[in-house]
Amino acid sequence: MEQNTDRMWWTIGAVLLGGILIAGAILLLNTTFLPNIKTKVNDLDRSAVTIPNPNLLKDTNTLSSTSTTSLWGTLFSSSQIYDPTIKSKSGVSAMTFSASVFVPLNATVGSTADIQIKGQNSQADNLGTNDYNTFIGHADYVTKQSDLGKTIRISAPIYKSNYQSFDDALANTASITIRQASNISGFVYSNPKLELGPTATP
User: Contact, 160 vs 47, CB < 8 A?
Assistant: First the structure.
């Protein structure tokens, strides 16, 4: 009888000890290892994902325009893309312009997809003059055989014009126009984007 009782208490003790060890292991896992794993995963997620900058142009998601043989022909007019809230941007040190370009299958390999964005102040009455520019950007890309029939993305830095700082340039920007900078027809331009920062984002 005493042996059975001893065995019972040893069994109970072993169960309790096992439970304590399991509970301790779970607690250690939850408080030490899992948070570290989650932190590392989150760090990897943040480093792998590019957060897009806001587009300073309006209503561009549905816009597209095909180039013609007209040098400096307007692709997107100011009435289509200009957003006056651009005037309120401050602390700006760099800007970038980008756009998608569909290269037709019959395009000449080596031809250039060439596009310009130009901001002007309220005194401007002619897109052809640079006297009233507030900023300008010029993106060009020489097509390759592998580009035929595909949509590519081109980008270029923005340069301020006639103003000491981007803040002053943007505060005086009353219109923005995107034009083709060559006489090559057939390129389909879409989703133009003007953003703050030195690098184009999706």
Answer: no
